[in-house]
Amino acid sequence: METLERVTKIMINLNIHKEFHFIYLLIKGVVMSHPYLGLTQEEINSMLMEMGIEKIEELYRDIPSKFFLKRPLQYSQPMSEEEVRQHIKKILSKNKVANQIKLFIGGGAWFHLIPSAVKEIVRRSEFLTSYTPYQPEVSQGMLQALFEYQSLMAELLDIEVVNSSMYDWATALGEAFRMVSRVTKRSKILYPQYISPERLKVAETYTEPTNIMMVEYIQNRIDGSVDLEDLKKKIDQDTAAVYIEYPSYLGFIPLNIREVGEIAHDHKALFIIGVDPTALGVFESPGKLGADIVVGEGQPLGMPVNFGGPLLGIMGCRMERELVHQLPGRLIGMTVTHKGERAYTMILQAREQHIKREKATSNICTNQALCALTAAVYLSLLGKNGIRILGEQILARTKYLISRLSKIVEVEAPLFKSIHFKEFTYRVVNKQSREVLRRLFEKNIVGGISIDGMFRDVGDAILTCVTEIHSKEDLDYYVDSLKEVVER
Question: Are residue 300 and residue 169 in the same domain, yes or no?
Answer without folding.
Answer: yes
